[in-house]
Design goal:
Helix content: 25-40%
Distance between the termini: 54 Å
Strand content: 5-15%
Order of helices and strands: HHEHEHE
Radius of gyration: 23 Å
Structural class: alpha/beta
Number of helices: 4
Amino acid sequence: FAFLFVLVALAHNSTLLPATPEVKMISNTSEVPTLAGGFIELETVKKPTALLNRRTKVVCTIGPACWEVPQLEELIDAGMNIARFNFSHGDHEGHGKILGRLREAAKNKDQNVAVMLDTKGPEIRSGFFADGA
């Protein structure tokens, strides 16, 4: 609730969010998405950002193409913050080995990498029972 109050307060502060008549706001009637706010420009979006200041997180799904330490190090160099393990494929032993290699790569690069475990959701099994039961 306090966060919502801060957003409302920011929205009403004209010095933080300049309101200009020529800026189109996103609406249900618009056919084309537009930027909501006159302070966002293409140059701002394209400007390089220091990794420590970046708020966006890069999630990489770990698969056979990047199971080895050198490939994991390349992903870390490219900006990976979170390694996603898909538990719908593979087994716990295999994922454990990959986790060990990920920890090694993170240590080599002196970077923290979060691990996200994507577990299987509920499965519906249908079939025939013995003796028509």
